[in-house]
Write a structure and sequence with these properties.
Elements (H helix, E strand, L loop, with lengths): L2 H33 L2 E4 L3 H8 L6 E6 L2 E8 L5 E6 H30 L7
Antiparallel strand pairs: 1-4, 2-3, 3-4
Helix pairs in contact: 1-3
Length: 122
């Protein structure tokens, strides 16, 4: 009789994980776009099949015509490939670091605001 109670909890947890993953993907894609990566849509069966061969949600290094290039596959939000060269990748690294630092500072400020200095009544 207890099992019906667990089903909604499992469904809610799975939905929460999917929402967090989609938000993380959007965040990464915003940084990639800001860094100058361009989007290549998988708009043909051949491109779609090729897209499926790459690991998802990872910036990967490849060599194209003897030059380094970087790709990021998004199989769930835009069904596309973000592509950039060395300058775009270096800018992505800088922007990602800035975003990570800003996120940590915001989290620390939120935690300080919630708990405040000890003791609380001063």
């Amino acid at each position: 009789m207890r099992y019906p109670l667990f089903v909604p909890l499992i469904v809610a947890a799975a939905a929460g994980c999917a929402t967090m993953q989609a938000a993380g993907t959007r965040s990464t894609e915003e940084v990639l776009s800001a860094a100058g990566f361009h989007v290549e849509a998988a708009d043909t069966p051949e491109k779609l099949a090729n897209l499926q061969t790459l690991p998802a949600r990872q910036v990967l290094s490849q060599t194209h015509d003897g030059k380094p290039s970087y790709v990021y596959r998004d199989p769930s939000v835009c069904h596309c490939l973000y592509v950039g060269g060395e300058p775009e990748y270096q800018q992505y690294q800088r922007l990602r670091l800035q975003k990570d630092i800003a996120d940590e500072e915001a989290s620390a400020a939120l935690n300080r605001g919630a708990w405040g200095p000890w003791p609380w009544w001063r």
